[in-house]
Write a structure and sequence with these properties.
Blueprint lengths: L2 H17 L4 H7 L4 H8 L7 H10 L12
Helix pairs in contact: 2-3
């Protein structure tokens, strides 16, 4: 598994979470997950499912493609 992709995803997730003025706890509550799950995602430690990614983007009010903009 290419960890660079997970790290880039996590960086984007954190950026959009902060732009929405959300804590990890608040985002976790919106997607019915635990705060540690959000923390691990942001650090690039775990690989989320496509379904979970979709739920995250809805919770952050962003397009699915935004979370994969790795420029």
């Amino acid at each position: 598994m290419n960890t660079k992709i997970l790290e880039a995803f996590g960086k984007n997730l954190k950026r959009y979470r902060l732009e929405n003025n959300m804590t990890q706890d608040e985002l976790a509550a919106k997607i019915n997950a635990h705060q540690t799950y959000i923390g691990k995602l942001e650090l690039g430690l775990i690989n989320p499912s496509l379904k979970r990614i979709f739920v995250l983007t809805r919770a952050l009010n962003i397009k699915l493609s935004d979370i994969f903009d790795f420029d």
